[in-house]
Recover the amino acids of this structure.
């Protein structure tokens, strides 16, 4: 049997979209990602049996579905994947399995096709296969991945190989991929999708996305009700205008403009027409408020006479004038020459017999017809000048990619549209044809934005396809107007006064708006944006589109308003900001006679929305509509003028004023039939991004709409943007489903993502929850009484005698009235006695309160008073220092061991829920608070858990001080598992050689230590811990250098741990087999602990979005001692758990999920500060500071000297024998962080102050010297000839008298066009051609002078000398010199 | 003056007689009952400060009372 291939199925998909464009070919950079599948081996086998085929065919079909789905193909496609098949004849061979698929194809049908195709498949030829599957069992047992790679030389050419193996019935897929093409995160996403596809297959559900589902037609009648004939003259006029603009046959007096498909751009056209024909002043707002024709016509009748705009007239024979928009693009081009950023690309797919010469002639005719396409922009004296050429021949290429296939054809199109334009060379249009099959062609056009906009494309394409049948120019309305006439008209209307008024209006609107809107990114924002971008494409399904149109109609709003509101809401959730500014295009065609002109009319406007509170979606849309209508009314003010006035700093890492954008591209049509050819609008991009993220909806009038998400690859991975888009689609659907509920209760998380997050939350496992800690220790004493329990120097105590001593203490305590539920103070130096005291108190049924001798006496006094303990046990000398009047003091050395022949002490009856310890947290501010930790919390920490195994607890170093929660791990970890505690005295721990000697002598297997101690030890002795099994590091951000040194030394597993006392110490653990990418990689929940990341409404946030970390499970403490209100505030109901009455602890820590299911620590909820309007997370700044190789530890604090503006100060402790200067730190951070995040000053200290627990004590940091702000504020006169010349140029251009070397060009009022003039003057003065961006990067006189000197090099020194000489000469000497030269 | 759109909370209590707060407009998570007070978050917390006298979980408290009862 042959597989039927329909003629249309000639598109071929062979691989997954790459994250990076690379040349196809051999790459030596391979990486791998694995995933355990939800689907089991049994599922797969059953599925294969059911389909009468093999597991290999099922897997092949699943991978084909993955590839087909990833390509998002909307038409029939042939998918090719390779499968390793083993047979007796050929051994293992790679076969190319080709199957036709079409959108909407049920997945089960794909299995049938693969089942047919696989046995018949031939061995793959070179390069035929780019994704290969190594199915379960293909290579038998024992053959590893290396053998797969050796299998055939063809397999190494694959972009990715997916090897599926089974372990204990679970399937694991291991994907080895080309690291140059794919980021590990996208592979992880693909594997997750593969898992979903297999799950759907097992469930018998699922189909390929696309047009296969029956399309729900909105079936909106194009000519609407029209039941009431327009009666008055005004009604008839409005009806005619609406019918024209809405392209309807007739319109009735009772019709609603928006119900007929009107939107804000069209509304603007209506207003323009009405104004032109009736001379009345109306606004777009009025049409929104009176959308019914008869009402609107009444306004037209009553309207005030409009201020008449000057008439637009043809200016024959005059030089073209440059419009504001063209000037802006010229300016941006000066800044960033040779970029495709402002190319407007168009791709049209042609099917049929295409006559190449006729199409070329039709395209040439368009260029001949529109002067703007023949206009070039020259730079004369630092200003743009337009020059018109009468005839220019278009740049036209024809290529044949039939042999290479469609993807290769698309690459040719991409290359064509990406070619940068030289604005000084006309035409600003290029076009070409790429033949991809006998009857399939890709027709592309690329036009510089200075000559067109989206609206123009409709005109151009319509004219090209109208002209194609004859190859002759088409009849056009003979207005005699050109774009240059508009530009002249615009210059006459937009006088400096009008612009100043408009800017003033915008200034008021944007006052106090955030300077930067940062969406959670995968990478740090570079100092200079590369503008590299990618575009992801989705569809708004017909069901959503019909809901959109119905809602717009029912509520008299536009589809645009609904879409942009949902977008703003999602941006609000991702950014955590309620004040959001989004850029959007405005049509910019204020006169009806401009409607048929080609050119750059569109302008950018910004919408600033208030997203605070809990409005319903309908209320939110109303807010947004008000904003967008007002913005429309002021859209004529050129964006560049706004930027110069409102955001002059020109930070090159971000787009000015708004960093996210939204657009709705309405195309009159997306399909033409012309001269026997069917032309369909397709999509292509130039690999650029103007904003961080732009979501555009493309409406060509069909039942569904396109969605394009353009994003900056500087910041985002495809998987992140994919999540954003998926959430937007889900959110939009849910908002439309019920526009009258509070938006805060509408989740944007797709069910799949929510399941994923709940799956990542943590795992429960049985553990001895009902036994008290002391009973578990006593059990070991019964099993092996002679085993060593505690070692302190020469002293060594067995389990038997430890329990005997503890029991003796317990008897004494019981005698003093201690019983179940009593609190007993414990004041011991770290020693065997401390352990005896801890265990003794528990044996008596009580809970111990550590009173650390290292704590200040005041604090100990507070703890005694706060708890009112009646009994305190400890070392005599320490007890003597405590205010124990009225309390019982028990000297622990004074208690004789209980003779072993005594009957066993009666169990006090404590249970898992009982309190075991009261630990005061070292809160940096406010009153200390004591967390009451129950027995079950401790047991869940060290028993039956996943981050540490009993044998790794055989010998545990006790390093932490007695009041710090790691003590729980250090003491109870070994004692509940039969291991031993080895006391490490503080002076030993602080001396790396002695510490290491002790660790090795005692054969310590595990330690849990604070980051600072780990760093200082490893920095001195890199292999300090290599003899251990496990090293747990926590308390602060890890230092990547120290972790790197320890990992390189080998031996022990290094782990980054995280956890608050309130959830009984460790909550998450991240084993570090290699140095992680980030200092905040805290891993995932340990067993019997749950982790949720939520927004301020307690709702789950998606992957990558920062939120507060909530922790749950049996480790959750009772609460804070005697602080009911505070407890209720921090310990909240667990809305995610099935356990009735369960609670979660709100950590106050901000974290985000990484796409691999681990957590990234971002900072503290209360460590967020605002610096000059930017929101700064101190933790983020710290993470960069401590990444400096010479920094051992560091902290960043926000100071507000004298109530003035906030200044960031970085405190660092250099690594041993290293030194670092403030200047080096500043340079390092400036390269990695935006300027506002770089600390204003740095303090380098011999050592940072630590609190008794070994964490950095922020409160004890010295105040920076307020007299020495690092930013220069004083005037420093130019110091050499070059600086003097630069300062003089500035002073001249800016019209000011005195310019200092430390002055900022923009701070002095300079704007971008003036910067171009500076560049021009520098060229004429120094003969140095500095790129404009160099000036913007160095807006200070001294930096600019430096750049000039660098450019001049050797020659510069001579020139500078010469300039110096000239300066010192008298005028006469200079004249003489010039005369002689 | 109370802000009109300030988020409303209610006091809730679980089987261990531990108190906390929850959003007024949302159903309680399993095992949590309304205590009968609602207001701003701070008002609810202030109320809890007044009424939550014994912070021991109910299971611990009753087990202890039972033991004491046997002893007595």
């Amino acid at each position: 049997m042959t597989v039927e291939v329909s003629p249309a199925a000639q598109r071929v998909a062979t691989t997954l979209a790459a994250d990076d464009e690379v040349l196809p070919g051999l790459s030596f950079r391979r990486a791998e990602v694995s995933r355990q599948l939800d689907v089991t081996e049994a599922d797969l086998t059953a599925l294969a049996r059911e389909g009468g085929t093999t597991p290999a065919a099922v897997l092949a079909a699943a991978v084909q579905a993955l590839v087909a789905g990833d390509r998002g193909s909307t038409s029939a496609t042939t998918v090719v994947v390779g499968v390793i098949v083993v047979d007796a004849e050929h051994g293992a061979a790679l076969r190319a399995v080709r199957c036709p698929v079409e959108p909407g194809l049920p997945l089960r049908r794909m299995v049938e096709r693969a089942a047919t195709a696989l046995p018949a498949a031939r061995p793959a030829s070179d390069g035929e296969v780019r994704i290969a599957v190594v199915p379960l069992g293909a290579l038998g047992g024992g053959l590893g991945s290396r053998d797969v790679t050796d299998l055939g030389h063809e397999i190494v050419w694959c972009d990715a190989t997916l090897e599926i193996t089974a372990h204990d019935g679970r399937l694991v897929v291991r994907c080895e991929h080309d690291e140059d093409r794919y980021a590990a995160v996208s592979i992880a996403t693909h594997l997750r999708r593969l898992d979903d596809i297999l799950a759907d297959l097992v469930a018998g559900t699922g189909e390929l996305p696309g047009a296969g589902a029956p399309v729900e037609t909105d079936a909106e009648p194009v000519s609407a009700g029209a039941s009431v004939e327009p009666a008055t003259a005004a009604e008839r006029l409005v009806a005619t205008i609406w019918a024209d603009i809405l392209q309807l046959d007739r319109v009735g007096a009772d019709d609603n403009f928006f119900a007929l498909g009107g939107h804000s751009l069209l509304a603007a056209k209506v207003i323009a027409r009405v104004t032109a024909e009736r001379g009345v002043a109306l606004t777009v707002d009025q049409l929104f408020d009176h959308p019914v024709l008869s009402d609107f016509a009444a306004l037209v009748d009553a309207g005030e006479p409009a201020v008449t705009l000057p008439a637009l007239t043809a200016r024959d024979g005059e030089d073209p004038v440059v419009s504001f928009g063209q000037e802006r693009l010229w300016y941006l081009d000066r800044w960033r020459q040779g970029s495709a950023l402002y190319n407007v690309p168009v791709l049209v797919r042609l099917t049929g017999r295409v006559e190449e010469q006729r199409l070329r002639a039709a395209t040439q005719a368009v260029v001949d017809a529109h002067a703007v396409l023949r206009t070039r922009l020259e730079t004369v004296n630092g200003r743009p000048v337009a020059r018109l050429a009468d005839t220019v021949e278009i740049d036209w290429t024809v290529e044949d990619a039939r042999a290479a296939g469609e993807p290769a054809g698309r690459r040719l199109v991409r290359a064509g549209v990406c070619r940068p334009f030289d604005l000084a060379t006309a035409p600003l249009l290029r076009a070409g044809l790429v033949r991809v099959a006998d009857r399939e062609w890709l027709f592309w056009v690329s036009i510089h934005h200075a000559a067109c906009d989206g609206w123009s494309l409709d005109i151009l394409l319509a004219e090209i396809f109208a002209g194609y049948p004859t190859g002759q120019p088409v009849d056009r309305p003979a207005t005699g107007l050109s774009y240059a006439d508009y530009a002249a008209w615009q210059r006459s209307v937009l006088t400096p006064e009008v612009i100043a008024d408009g800017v003033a209006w915008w200034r008021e609107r944007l006052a106090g708006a955030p300077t930067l809107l940062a969406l959670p990114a995968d990478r740090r924002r570079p100092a200079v944006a590369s503008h590299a971008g990618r575009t992801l494409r989705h569809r708004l399904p017909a069901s959503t589109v019909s809901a959109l149109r119905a809602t717009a109609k029912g509520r008299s709003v536009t589809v645009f308003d609904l879409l942009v509101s949902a977008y703003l809401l999602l941006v609000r959730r991702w950014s955590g900001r309620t004040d959001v500014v989004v850029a959007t295009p405005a049509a910019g065609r204020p006169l009806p006679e401009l409607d048929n002109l080609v050119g750059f009319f569109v302008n950018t406007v910004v919408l600033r929305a208030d997203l605070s509170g809990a409005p319903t979606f309908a209320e939110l849309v109303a807010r947004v509509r008000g904003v967008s209508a007002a913005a429309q009314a002021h859209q004529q003010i050129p964006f560049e003028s706004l930027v110069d006035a409102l955001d002059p700093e020109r930070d090159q890492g971000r787009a000015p004023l708004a960093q996210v954008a939204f657009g709705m591209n309405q195309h009159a049509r997306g399909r033409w039939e012309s001269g026997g050819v069917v032309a369909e609008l397709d999509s292509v991009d130039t690999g650029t991004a103007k904003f961080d993220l732009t979501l555009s909806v493309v409406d060509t009038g069909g039942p569904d709409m396109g969605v394009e998400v353009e994003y900056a690859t500087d910041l985002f991975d495809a998987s992140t943007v994919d999540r954003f888009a998926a959430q937007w689609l889900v959110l939009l659907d849910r908002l439309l489903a019920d526009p009258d509920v509070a938006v805060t209760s509408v989740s944007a998380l797709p069910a799949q993502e929510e399941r994923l997050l709940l799956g990542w939350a943590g795992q429960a496992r049985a553990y001895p929850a009902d036994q008290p800690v002391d009973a578990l220790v006593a059990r070991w004493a019964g099993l092996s009484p002679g085993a060593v329990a505690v070692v302190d120097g020469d002293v060594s105590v067995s389990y038997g005698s430890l329990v005997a001593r503890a029991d003796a203490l317990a008897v004494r305590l019981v005698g003093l009235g201690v019983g179940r539920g009593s609190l007993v103070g414990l004041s011991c130096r770290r020693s065997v006695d401390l352990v005896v005291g801890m265990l003794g108190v528990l044996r008596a049924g009580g809970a111990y309160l550590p009173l650390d001798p290292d704590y200040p006496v005041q604090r100990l006094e507070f703890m005694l008073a706060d708890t009112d303990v009646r009994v305190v046990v400890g070392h005599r000398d320490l007890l003597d220092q405590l205010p124990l009047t009225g309390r019982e003091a028990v000297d622990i050395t004074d208690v004789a061991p209980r003779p072993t022949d005594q009957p066993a002490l009666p169990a006090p009856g404590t249970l898992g829920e009982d309190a075991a310890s009261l630990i005061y947290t070292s809160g940096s501010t406010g009153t200390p608070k004591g967390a009451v930790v129950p027995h079950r919390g401790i047991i869940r920490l060290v028993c039956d858990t996943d981050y540490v195994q009993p044998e790794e607890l055989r010998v545990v170093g006790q390093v932490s001080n007695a009041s710090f929660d790691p003590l729980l791990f250090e003491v109870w970890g070994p004692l509940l598992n039969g291991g031993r505690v080895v006391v490490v005295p503080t002076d030993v721990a602080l001396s790396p050689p002695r510490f290491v000697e002790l660790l090795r002598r005692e054969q310590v297997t595990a330690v849990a230590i604070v980051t600072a101690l780990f760093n200082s030890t490893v920095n001195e002795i890199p292999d300090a811990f290599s003899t251990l099994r496990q090293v747990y590091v926590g308390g602060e951000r890890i230092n990547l250098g120290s972790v790197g040194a320890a990992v390189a030394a080998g031996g022990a597993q290094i782990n980054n741990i995280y956890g608050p006392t309130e959830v009984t110490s460790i909550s998450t653990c991240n084993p570090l087999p290699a140095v992680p990418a980030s200092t905040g990689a805290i891993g995932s929940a340990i067993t019997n602990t749950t982790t949720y990341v939520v927004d301020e409404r307690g709702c789950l946030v998606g992957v990558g979005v920062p939120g507060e970390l909530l922790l749950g499970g049996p480790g959750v403490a009772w609460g804070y001692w005697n602080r009911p209100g505070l407890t209720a505030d921090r310990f909240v109901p667990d809305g995610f758990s099935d356990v009735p009455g369960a609670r979660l602890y709100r950590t106050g820590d901000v974290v985000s999920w990484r796409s691999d299911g681990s957590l990234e620590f971002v900072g503290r909820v209360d460590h967020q500060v605002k610096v000059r309007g930017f929101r700064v997370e101190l933790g983020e700044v710290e993470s960069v500071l401590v990444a400096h190789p010479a920094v051992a530890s560091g902290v960043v604090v926000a100071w507000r000297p004298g109530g003035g503006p906030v200044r960031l100060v970085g405190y660092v402790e250099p690594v041993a024998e290293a030194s670092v200067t403030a200047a080096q730190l500043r340079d390092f951070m400036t390269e990695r962080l935006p300027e506002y995040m770089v600390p204003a000053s740095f303090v380098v200290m011999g050592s940072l102050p630590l609190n008794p627990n070994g964490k950095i004590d922020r409160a004890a940091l010295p105040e920076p010297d307020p007299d020495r702000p690092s930013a220069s504020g004083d005037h420093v006169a130019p110091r050499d000839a070059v600086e003097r010349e630069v300062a003089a140029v500035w002073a001249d251009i800016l019209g000011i008298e005195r310019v200092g070397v430390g002055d900022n060009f923009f701070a002095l009022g300079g704007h971008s066009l003036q910067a171009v003039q500076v560049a021009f003057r520098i060229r004429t003065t120094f003969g140095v051609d500095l790129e404009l961006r160099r000036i913007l990067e160095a807006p200070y006189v001294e930096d600019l002078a430096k750049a000039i000197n660098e450019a001049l090099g050797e020659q510069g020194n001579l020139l500078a000398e010469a300039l110096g000489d000239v300066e010192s000469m008298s005028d006469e000497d200079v004249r003489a010199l010039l005369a002689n030269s | 003056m109370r802000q009109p759109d300030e988020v409303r909370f209610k006091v809730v209590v679980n089987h261990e007689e531990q108190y906390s707060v929850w959003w007024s407009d949302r159903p309680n998570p399993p095992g949590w009952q309304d205590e009968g007070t609602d207001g701003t978050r701070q008002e609810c917390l202030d109320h809890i400060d007044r009424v939550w006298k014994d912070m021991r979980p109910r299971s611990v408290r009753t087990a202890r009372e039972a033991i004491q009862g046997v002893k007595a």
In short: The radius of gyration of chain B is 16 Å. Chain B touches chain A at residues 5, 7, 11-12, 14-16, 18-23, 25-26, 28-32, 41, 44-46, 48-49, 51-53, 55-57, 59-60, 63-64, 67 (CB under 8 Å).
